[in-house]
């Protein structure tokens, strides 16, 4: 069955905006699990704009499902990830000045450093996913790097309108087929919300969707548990039979 990873970064964004102790991303992670999240995703950014190092340890200790820790390919982050020992690490690109993650990791262009990072994380017993654009060259490089999972960046699909959205959906569909052809587990995420998720969840072979901003935004009005349950129900209803 298709899995939902709930990204709780933006609970921490709200906390960091005032440097208060609330809202607590650990509580958010626990509530999301209780509402049907299959895993919890969090992004420890180099600038620590939302998730903090202490959150990673606290959430790791509490989770009953699994943790998908997103981080950049840097010595500091790899060290922290190996120490935290999440079940999954998703390597992502990062720019300090960006509003949100722009595009996928350039695995083909940074091949040696990505392959070394994958090896190091595998040696620590951590499964590795690479957050990449739905692009045949990047998928091939991801497969050569030794990673067993890719997460296709759906931001371009989410931002597109009209016929462009259909073209971006086709890019993701082709990416899923290509990833599976390389023997990879194929996940997707970024910018997915209650109106655009069904078409992605319906792609045959897609394993997991990681969704944060839209769920946390919906939670303001509906509560986190309902926001998670409703997203999961949309995904499951749309998903192609295995
Ligand atoms: C890699 C990714 O898509 C998410 O981690 C997302 O980046 C989280 O939100 P911000 O980009 O606002 O940190
Ligand atoms: N990897 C994508 C993710 O975790 C969530 O992205 P978003 O839904 O917050 O855009």
From TrEMBL:
InterPro entries: Aldolase_TIM, PyrdxlP_synth_PdxJ, Pyridoxine-5'_phos_synth. It is found in: Cytoplasm. GO terms for cellular component: cytosol. It comes from the Bacteria. The keyword Transferase applies. The active site is at 43 (proton acceptor), 70 (proton acceptor), 190 (proton donor). The record marks 151 as: Transition state stabilizer. It is an enzyme of class 2 (transferase). Keywords: Cytoplasm, Pyridoxine biosynthesis, Transferase. SUPFAM superfamilies: Pyridoxine 5'-phosphate synthase (SSF63892). Its main location: cytoplasm. Gene3D superfamilies: Aldolase class I. 1-deoxy-D-xylulose 5-phosphate binds at residues 9-10, 45, 50, 100. Pathway: Cofactor biosynthesis; pyridoxine 5'-phosphate biosynthesis; pyridoxine 5'-phosphate from D-erythrose 4-phosphate: step 5/5. 3-amino-2-oxopropyl phosphate binds at residues 7, 18, 191, 212-213. GO terms for molecular function: pyridoxine 5'-phosphate synthase activity. One of its GO terms (biological process) is pyridoxine biosynthetic process. It catalyses: 3-amino-2-oxopropyl phosphate + 1-deoxy-D-xylulose 5-phosphate = pyridoxine 5'-phosphate + phosphate + 2 H2O + H(+). Its EC number is 2.6.99.2. Belongs to the PNP synthase family. Catalyzes the complicated ring closure reaction between the two acyclic compounds 1-deoxy-D-xylulose-5-phosphate (DXP) and 3-amino-2-oxopropyl phosphate (1-amino-acetone-3-phosphate or AAP) to form pyridoxine 5'-phosphate (PNP) and inorganic phosphate. Homooctamer; tetramer of dimers. This is Pyridoxine 5'-phosphate synthase. It comes from Pusillimonas noertemannii.
């Amino acid at each position: 069955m298709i899995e939902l990873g709930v990204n709780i970064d933006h609970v921490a964004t709200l906390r960091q905006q005032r440097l208060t102790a609330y809202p607590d991303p650990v509580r958010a992670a626990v509530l999301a699990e209780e509402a049907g999240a299959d895993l919890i995703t969090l992004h420890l950014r180099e600038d620590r704009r939302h998730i903090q190092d202490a959150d990673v340890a606290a959430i790791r200790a509490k989770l009953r499902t699994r943790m998908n820790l997103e981080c950049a390919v840097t010595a500091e982050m790899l060290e922290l990830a190996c120490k935290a020992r999440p079940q999954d690490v998703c390597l992502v690109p990062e720019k300090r000045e960006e509003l949100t993650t722009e595009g996928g990791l350039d695995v083909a262009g940074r091949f040696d450093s990505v392959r070394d990072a994958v090896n190091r994380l595998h040696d620590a017993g951590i499964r590795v996913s690479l957050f990449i654009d739905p692009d045949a060259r990047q998928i091939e490089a991801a497969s050569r790097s030794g990673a067993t999972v890719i997460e296709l960046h759906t931001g371009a699909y989410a931002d597109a309108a009209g016929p462009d959205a259909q073209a971006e959906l086709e890019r993701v569909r082709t990416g899923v087929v290509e990833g599976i052809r390389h023997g990879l587990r194929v996940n997707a995420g970024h910018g997915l919300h209650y109106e655009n998720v069904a078409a992605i969840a319906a792609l045959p072979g897609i394993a997991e969707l990681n969704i944060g901003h839209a769920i946390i935004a919906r939670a303001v009005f509906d509560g986190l548990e309902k926001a998670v349950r409703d997203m999961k129900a949309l995904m499951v209803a749309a998903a192609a039979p295995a």
